[in-house]
Specification:
This protein is an alpha+beta fold and about 160 residues long. The chain has three helices and eight strands. The chain is about 15% helix and about 40% strand.
Amino acid sequence: MGKRNTTLSSFIAATVAVLGFTHPVSAQVSCRDDLVTVSGDFGVARFTVQVADDYEERAQGLMNVPSMPTLSGMLFVYDQPQQTAFWMRNTLISLDMLFADETGTITRIHDKAIPLDETPIPGGDDIQYVLEINGGLAARLGIEEGDVMQHPSMGENAAKPCQ
């Protein structure tokens, strides 16, 4: 292999390590309350999260947070599937919103929500989980609708249940 190909391979390997995703073969990781794993054709991405699973936590969300580490986010957990809509009131950073059904399957992605914008962002019907991550990160990682989230809150009926 030439020097250019070796350099390119090293760059890709370093980028993969920094962004925190891997090939699906190495996707087996223990489930933790502070970790959401997203799996798809792109591979696997792991996000350190805060969980918002009650009314007050969901209402507060990421308001007034000035910055967030690259592979961090917030997982909103609802008791049952429902129609959802979010807004960016008092939210200072751009966010991607990954809306998922009761199995953890991503059904909609809203890319780069605008900070402080109060326009409703509909997630759709039958949404039980919403993962908020830094704006533009879903596209950078290759996350798409149909990819699957894994988290202990998703239970036994998850598309990818915890072991």
